[in-house]
Amino acid sequence: MEYQKPIPLKNQDNSPYWDAADRHELTLQRCDSCHEYAHPPGPSCAKCGSTDLSWVSIGDDVKATIYSYVVSYRPFLPGFQDELPLIIAQAELEKVPEVKIMCNVLECKPEDIQIGMPVQMIWQDIAEDRALPQWKPVDE
Amino acid sequence: MGKITDRYAIVGVGESERSRNSGTTPLHMALDAARSALKDSGLNAQDVDGFMSYNENDSCTSHELATYLGVRPKYVKDIHGGGSSTEMLIGDAVGLIEAGILNTVLIFRSMNGSSGQRVGRGYDPDMLQGALPGGSYIIPYGSASPSQWFGMFATRHMHETGITKEHLGHVCTSFYEHAGRNPKAFLHAKPLTMEKYMDTPDISYPFNIHDSCLELDEANAIIVTSAERARDCMSKPVYIMGMSARQCHPHAHYWSDLDQVASDFVAPKVYESAGVKPEDIQVASIYDCFSWVVLRQLEAYGFAPRGEVGNFVAEGNLRMGGKLPTNTAGGMLSEGYTHGMNNVLEIVRQIRHEYKGTDRQVEGCEIGICTGWSGPDIAGAMILRN
Ligand SMILES: [Zn+2]
Q1: Does domain A61-140 have CATH number 3.30.420?
Q2: Domain Thiolase C-terminal spans what residues (chain B) (predicted)?
Q3: Same domain, B221 and B198
Q4: B170 and B91 housed in the same domain
Q5: B3 found inside a domain
Q6: B363 inside 8 A of chain A by CB
Q7: Which residues in chain B are closer than 8 Å to A76, comparing Cβ atoms?
Q8: Would you call B287 a catalytic residue per the annotation?
Q9: Distances (CA, A) of B285 to A26, B242, B304
Q10: Is the reported ipTM for this assembly greater than 0.90?
Q11: Which of A6, A67, A88 lies nearest to residue B125, judging by beta carbons?
């Protein structure tokens, strides 16, 4: 069945992130002046305003823990109606804990989700040449 | 702005009917609210030389409102805004009066928030991705509703501080109890017990329908002028002791640091500006788009220490007779929702002792706080006195 949910739209500021995701690789924007990561990325650093920015590859094997979550019982957007309840979470990256990435936790029951839970990034192919970073619980 | 304590006052407040389906436009409702506030103040429309409003592309303009009050004002201002904008516009009004540019300002918020454009609903997902900051990192994951964004903040804060679902319920049941005494509250006849609250299924855990503000069709208006001119008004002036506003976190919907809440920065400034402490406050209007937001602000504004906010509400302190009767008309959870302005109307009426002799009046309330919260990123607050 065709993917019905919204597909990330690329723009001037976010395309390096989504281009890398399409290659199953996570890259994050970092400021060369204050060395802080910036996520979501922007036209300049949200911490210090510098325009000296780089993209840093975090690779394709990305681990995190759950920082926070909601369990959504209603589809607020088209395409999500068949996947309720939906876990929407923020994943705190193991390698860059100051970055929290919003995500869905797949293969997880709503009663099992909890803060601090370890998760692994997986790459969900959603269209030809497009992929969405998602997460699943780490098997213990 | 220099020291403004007691030099400016709110001299008129008014609202339109509130309903699920007004059958009319925001302009009509804004006119009703403005006329009601003018009547309350005893001023004529021609006495108002500044008109201001905030909206989310869902309202009429200040220019239209002035036009149909038959006024050609010196100044109109419409900003894009939500929670916290009421306090910010009152600050703007005070600044313009202080500068001698204006004499009297009417501030309004009018929205068909139920029958018209609803917050966070009915938009095209691609349009939302472009419109929201960092939208491409939110929308593909199905996160498009304020209940989901605020729920994410709440879950983490609850985890860190021990606040429980039942504590959220105490906020809701306290405010619904107040709505039960307010015939104009939309949920006046819908009492809420803790049992009923706990049995209500979640929309976005940790929130069920009672944790969320009531989207209605409604308009509110407030008139601000100098203390000097306030003496000529019919109403009892409510003086502005102090105010403050602040922006902090860069991403409203993408919150990665719980310590970056604008209220935490606004709180010391607003107390300093008013020259009072939390223990001097006897009545409160705390911005309540969601129940949890009240708890986080009680912590920020120093009414209970972090970790003890849940107990503070469980002890009944938000109710009449408690330490801090809060949102005494029912608040946005049960009276009505105009992005914060209806809570300002209520605190003005409390501080005027307008309900004297009834079970709605907070006894001996001379000083009150009113807070706005637009998310973790933006907050405004003011302290008012009799
Ligand atoms: Zn920087």
Answers
A1: no
A2: 249-375
A3: no
A4: no
A5: no
A6: no
A7: 120-121, 142-145, 148
A8: yes
A9: 44, 15, 16
A10: yes
A11: A6
